[in-house]
Every structure is written in C-alpha cells, then in structure tokens.
Amino acid sequence: KLILLDSLLQENFQTSFVPTCFLAKMMTETDCPPPSLEEHARPPDNPTNLDTTDEIGTGDDLNESGDDTADREHNVSTDAVHSDQEVREEELDCTDDVPEINSTLSFKEDNEAERTNGQRKVEASSVSGGGSVRGRMKDTIVRPASVPVKPVEIKPVHIGDQKLRSKLKFEVVTAKVVEEHGKKHVTYTVMMKRAGGEVHPAVISRRYNDFCYLYERILCTFHPSILGEFQFPKKVLIGNFKAEVITERTDAFHKFLNLIAQNDKLLYSDYFHAFLCSDEQNEAVSYIKLGQYSDAAPLLETIFYIREKLVTISHVTVLECVVELVACLAAIEADESAFRYSLVAAQCLQLLHGHPEVDRVRIPFLKLAVSLAVSLGHDPKPYNKQLSELRYSGVKTDSAPSLLEVVRDKYIHTATRTAKPW
User: Fold this and answer.
1) How far apart are CA 75 and CA 55, in angstroms?
2) CB contact set of 142 (below 8 Å; sequence gap of 6+)
3) Secondary structure of the chain in the HEC alphabet?
C-alpha cells in the first residue's frame, strides 16, 4: 500500500507539472505568475483523509517519503529549465531572423477597456518619445465629436418691446461733492427706467453745467412755454456746496427731466440724446482707439440700456452700440457676456434688414457669433446658415475682417468729440 501511495503521488505531481517554456508563454499572454513547484510538492492540507494506521506505517515515514520525492522532482525540473535556456540561447545565436512577436491585443478589448462614459484615452503607443510623454498622453482624454459639450447657461438681457416705445421716468437719486484735478464740483446721479417697471435701469452721472446746457438748447429751439412754469435753478457764486443749494437743484433736475420725458419732441431730440450718452460715448471711443476694451465695455453697456429704453432695439444706433459691445467683450474673453449681447444683436440685424449698417457688420458679427456659440456649447447652426446663404449668393465671407477691426476702423480716423446726429 505504501508503494501504491507513493506512485500515486508521483503521477499527481507529474501531471500537474507544466514545463518552463509553457509557463513563459502563459505569463506573456495572461500576465499571471506560474504555479509554484512547492505547492505541488507539498502534501494535501487535510491529513485526516489519509490512512495512517499501523498496517501502512507512521505519519513520519509518509512525510519523509514525500520530502524525498519533492526534492528529487525539484532537481529534475531545475535541470530542465537550465537546459531549455541553453537551447534557446543557441537558437538565437545561430539565426539572423528577427523573432516574430505575437501580440495579444484586441480591438474589441481595447474599446471595452479604454472607453469610459463615452470617452476614450489616447493610446501611448501612438506617441513617439520618452516615457513621460507617453504617460501624459495616456492621461489625456479626447472628447468624441458626437458627445456635445454641456451648454453654458446664459442669462437673458432684459429689453422692452422691439418696436413699441415705452414711457420713461427719471429720478435724481444722489448728489455728492467730487474733487478732480484739485477742483470740486457736485455730481448728480440720474436713473433712467421705464414707467411700468424696470429690471435693469440705466444710471448716469451729470453736473450742473450739463443740465444748464440742455435747458439752453431747449429754449433756443422751442418756446419757453413748452416747459410750462418750470424755473431752472440759477447759478450761485458762493455756496455751491451747501446742502440747501444741492437739495434745491436735485428737486429741480428731477422735475426738469420728467417734463422732457412727457414731450416726444424733447425726448427724442438730438440734444437730449447727447445729454444722455455723449460723455460715455466719447470716453468709450477713446478707450477703443487705445485698445483698452475692458474700460470701454461698461460704458458701451450703459449706452446700450439708454438707447434701448429710448428708441428700442429696432433703431440703428442700438445696433451700432451692441455690436461694439460684443466686439469689446469678446476681445477681453468675456465670452458669456459677449454671447448674451450677441443674441440681442442678432435680433437687431433681423429688424434692420437692408440697412447699410447691417451690411457693414453682418459677416464679421456672424463669424464671431459662431465662435462664441461653439465655445459655450450652444448651437451655431443659425449663424452658419446665414453665412452659407451669403456665400451661395456670391458674397465672400472668408476674407472679411474681424468685428473688432470693423469697429476700430470706424473710429480710427474720427475725432473723439464729434457731434453725432440722432
């Protein structure tokens, strides 16, 4: 029985033994370590299944026989490994052929392993260079063209009716003493808004001389009775900064502006438009010439809200202002704000179709709108469609200048303080 058991153990070990060459192939294909020889040579973990009665022999005799067998088989396997390596070295030395490398990669496995949430990593093997470059490229994620970028939420620009002019009202909200270049003067803050309610009122600051000039222009154009019994506050040589004088002028200016708002001839006159916008317009043009677009943008935004309330977005002056605003915002990479106002500019282009100003800015604006829409994940098709229609009609769109260049060319040869007709 002991001889029979010993032979069974040898057969079990030999059948489970795998040659070294097969182990190497298995490791290259599965990257799993080969089974340990000691694990096969070790007797079963559960000794209770063995018959260790006195008829067979003691347990120590059985263990000694197993150890001898394991040592002998281990030496044989070691010799086999050395002989196999020597044969392989001789074969490699005797031939000049490049050994064929059998790759275990599969396109299917690559797609399943590398694809995560619709995104795929770039293969390191496609990049030539050192290991650091490969490591960086592995971490790089390429977004498939079919997966759209999540659109950035754009806050709407609150505007009134596109064609119906609203009733306006003015408030002189504050008055403060300001010192500039060593001289003091009082600045009055005027708020312009719609009578029915306003989400975004326009706010400007004017001095006493600005109100006085507007009053004189009205008297030169119309009969004084057009303002009823209104009395403009007189100039004083002493005490300009007294609280009583400032309060009196604040109330008078408040009444004066609302009288103008009730009369369309005064409200839509050139000189009242100059009163509301000329200072900001002249300053914005200076900044545009100097390339200081971050300083020009807030001034143009104020002008836009004034004109939008005064004459609606169907007026060409609103188009001019909003196009300049979009160009300046895009120049300082404020893409979200630029795209907000580009939506308004697109409406202006539709409402003013056929106007010379529309033809001047249409192509540069559409090209910029496409770029802004793509960068923010919005649909550029409406703008691309208009460009395609222009190309189909024979208009060259590729050679058109940028919108910022169009804006700068408008003012580059223009004096800053030039009277602009309404």
Assistant:
1) 32
2) 119, 120, 121, 122
3) CHHHHHHHHHHHHHHHCCCHHHHHHHHHHHCCCCCCHHHHHCCCCCHHHCCCCCCCCCHHHHHHHHHHHHHHHHHHHHHHHHHHHHHHHHHHHHCCCCCCCCCCCCHHHHHHHHEECCEEECCHHHCCCCHHHHHHHHHCEECCCCCCCCCCCCCCCCCCCCCCCCCEEEEEEEEEEEEECCEEEEEEEEEEEECCCCCCCEEEEECHHHHHHHHHHHHHHCCHHHHCCCCCCCCCCCCCCCHHHHHHHHHHHHHHHHHHHCCHHHHCCHHHHHHHHHHHHHHHHHHHHHCCHHHHHHHHHHHHHHHHHHHCCCCHHHHHHHHHHHHHHHHCCCHHHHHHHHHHHHHHHHHCCCCHHHHHHHHHHHHHHHHHHHHCCCCCHHHHHHHHHHHHCCCCCCCCCCHHHHHHHHHCCCCCCCCCCC
Residue 284 near residue 299 (C-beta atoms within 8 A): yes
**How far is residue 14's CA from residue 41's CA, in Å, rounded to a whole number?**
10
Query: What does each of the 422 residues of the chain score in pLDDT, given as a tens digit?
Result: 677 766 676 665 554 444 444 444 444 444 444 444 444 444 444 444 444 444 444 444 434 444 444 444 444 434 434 444 443 444 444 444 444 444 443 433 444 434 444 343 333 333 333 444 334 333 333 333 433 468 899 988 988 888 788 899 999 999 999 988 888 999 999 999 998 888 899 999 999 999 999 999 999 999 888 998 899 999 888 888 899 999 999 999 999 999 999 999 999 999 999 999 999 999 999 999 999 999 999 999 999 999 999 999 999 999 999 999 999 999 999 999 999 999 999 999 999 999 999 999 999 999 999 999 999 999 999 999 999 999 999 999 999 999 999 999 998 876 655 445 55
The verdict on pTM exceeding 0.70 is no
- The candidate with the shortest Cα–Cα distance to 67, out of 42, 40, 37, is 42
